[in-house]
Amino acid sequence: MTTSPGIVYLELIGRMLARLRDQQWPSIREAAGLVADSLASGGTVHVFGSGHSHMLAEELFYRAGGLVRVKPILFDGLMLHPSAVLSTSLERMPELADALLADHPIGAGDVLIVASNSGSNAVSSQLVRLVQQNGVRVIAVTSLRHATSSAARSNDLPRLHEMAEVVIDNGGVVGDAAIEIRGFDRKVSPTSTVIGAAIVNAVVAEAVQMLVDRGTPPEVYTSSNLEGGDEVNASLIRSANLR
């Protein structure tokens, strides 16, 4: 009996999540330590990704159970809704990183999480280079298999795993799409988003525990769909001076 490709995908995701626990835990915990240290000293966690990776920046921003002191770097041109083709062109422009930082300052003591499955987008690499010059620690969420593959698109700048202080490997295949379909000539169903979301939320959970253990619990949002949630979150935003 042939297994349904949807079931194959779900089983693959389960194995990939177990791999995070079994093989990537030291890196996840190290990343959590950077986040905890930054928040304990009054710093902010910044998150960046282009294309579909921008969803990981949104994943950590303003949601139930999420850290208040998170600032995503969200630029429409690097997302997909204005123009998918334009997004691909812009992410290959390293000089765009300077403009992004002019609009979104990141200072010493802050932490930057950068998500890129390929690890080769020029804007991401340049962004990392610039913030590291200012003493910012960087956490990369990437696919080492893709980044080190001979099939990966070339780039003059170093790849994320060659630059970041902490590298968390999402375990994805080259090209991200993971599932073969009978009678079809290409794979479907990428894994980087679901695994990336698990990674960043695991980092948050671990960082919060570290801060609680230190006696310095961080600000964390509640659900706006709970009674009184709007008021709680508004108070958190005011206290964190985020608006």
Q: What features would you describe in this structure?
A:
This protein has helices at about 5-25, 25-40, 55-60, 85-90, 95-105, 120-130, 145, 190-215, 230-240, and strands spanning about 45-50, 70-75, 110-115, 135-140, 165-170, 175-180, 190. It has about 240 residues and is of the alpha/beta class. The chain has a single domain (about 5-240), classed as Rossmann fold, CATH 3.40.50. The strands form two sheets. A five-stranded parallel β-sheet has the order 2-1-3-4-5, sandwiched between helices. Helix 1 runs parallel beside helix 8 and helix 5 (about 95-105) packs across helix 6.
**Shape summary:** globular
Number of domains: 1
Q: Note the beta-strand portion.
A: 5-15%
The third-level CATH topology is Rossmann fold
Distance N to C terminus:
57 Å
Name the structural class: alpha/beta
**Arrangement of strands in the largest sheet:** 2-1-3-4-5
- Rounded to the nearest angstrom, the radius of gyration is 18 Å
Order of helices and strands: HHEHEHHEHEHEEEHH
Question: Secondary-structure blueprint of this entry?
Answer:
Layout: H1 5-23, H2 25-40, E1 45-49, H3 54-59, E2 70-73, H4 84-90, H5 96-103, E3 111-115, H6 122-132, E4 137-142, H7 144-147, E5 166-169, E6 177-179, E7 188-190, H8 192-213, H9 229-240
Parallel strand pairs: 1-2, 1-3, 3-4, 4-5
Antiparallel strand pairs: 6-7
Short recap of the structure:
With 243 residues, the chain is α/β, with parallel strands linked by helices.
